[in-house]
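Q: what sequence does this backbone want?
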């Protein structure tokens, strides 16, 4: 069972990928995908068990939709 909840704001930059920030994180976290971003945040917060909620802002939300549509077309 998770002890805490971390809400991280996520944006997207074509040069860097997904970028997240939260008060509990000492620095921004960068990853190529939302899954990678979540794993990187979890690794930074070990050994704490935290429920991570990614709040997607404009570009991050559009990029997620673009990737999902691209994956469906590939099927």
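A:
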């Amino acid at each position: 069972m998770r002890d805490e909840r971390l809400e991280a704001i996520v944006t997207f930059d074509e040069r860097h990928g997904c970028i997240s920030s939260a008060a509990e994180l000492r620095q921004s976290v960068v990853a190529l995908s939302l899954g990678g971003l979540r794993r990187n945040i979890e690794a930074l917060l070990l050994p704490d068990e935290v429920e991570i909620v990614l709040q997607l802002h404009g570009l991050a939300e559009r990029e997620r939709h673009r990737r999902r549509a691209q994956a469906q077309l590939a099927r």
